[in-house]
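Running this now, will post back.
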Amino acid sequence: MTSSNATSELHEILGERLEGGGTWAWAYADVSGNVEDPRRQAALRLRAVEESLREQGAGDDVVDLVAAEFEQEPGVPSPVARYVLVHDGSVVLSEVLPGHLHGPESVGVGAVPDLVPLVAHRPVDLPFLVVHAGKEGGAFRTYRLGHAPVAPAEQQVQGRNDTLHYAKAGTGWKQPHWQQHTEEIWKQNQSELASALDATVREVRPGLVVVAGDVTARELLVKSLSSETRGLVSVFPGDPRADTASKQAFVEHVEVALARVVATRRHDLEDLLRTHVGRGDNQAVTGIGSVVEALQQAQGSVVALDAVAIGDRTLLALGAAPWVATAPEQAGGVPVIGPVPAVCALVRAAVLTDAEIVLVNAASLPGGAAAAALLRWPVGPAVPA
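Update: finished.
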């Protein structure tokens, strides 16, 4: 597994803060505006977040900070969620998360934050390209899964637009000539668009390229792409700019295509875990206790867990390495922050040891375990050949 996900990004942003103590406050909630009386619904949701924070001990200053972030327009189409994280009175994260809620809303105050919503929305670091092909050229834009769109805006590739349409039906000797001339212009325009896309693919390394637009332009574009880019392509059979129904169908197509990419990577991990456990080659461990031990030694490369299966279990969060323990005697003299939800403790330890977190269904893990991990180096004695 070579992909990375939200844990890498979180390590860069929160690493030093997660290592220390202090108090965290967070809120993850739906902020979609595609509801009846959206202003009233937004006010009700915000009031619920504020009340929940106060009930859990947040001061007015913290509540006001979170509320100010939720009052901002998300700036992306619905459905959309927002995640706000405050540490010791400072906003350290305020993220717009496109799409439906990935799990229950989460509002809390504690010694360790709930970072699961971010991992759920960003299961892999997945840039992807959305392309609109037209006979005159086209345009494309780079996105990242689970992130709101950011500048730069879409890249335009404007080709020739002279004689773009077939001449009217006729029997003159010039008719085949003009048709051939027009087709050559279309091919040239799509070749230029393909060159720009290939260059972006080499730079960005996306996991998906979605192509939409004019049917002839789509076909010419795909044929002009490099084999590397073509292997990433998912073609939408229509033009999302044609009407509202086409636009909605296109959005659904992109969502399904992204879900397939994520599911493939998750299934690859699950297969790898089952293979290692089946071989008994000590390259993987299962069960919360074993995963904790792996994280304590920074041995976990990829940690798979089912938040629902873990349930209300708690683990000890530690103020320094090894970061997490199942019991006080495992702390090794390191200050104990306190018992926290096991899922939060595992994600925190994964972030601090730069392990990738993948959320799965326990039924897909060896033995139905609630957690499992691929290891950076094997544990225990090697199995004889």
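The longest strand covers residues 90-98. More later if anyone needs it.
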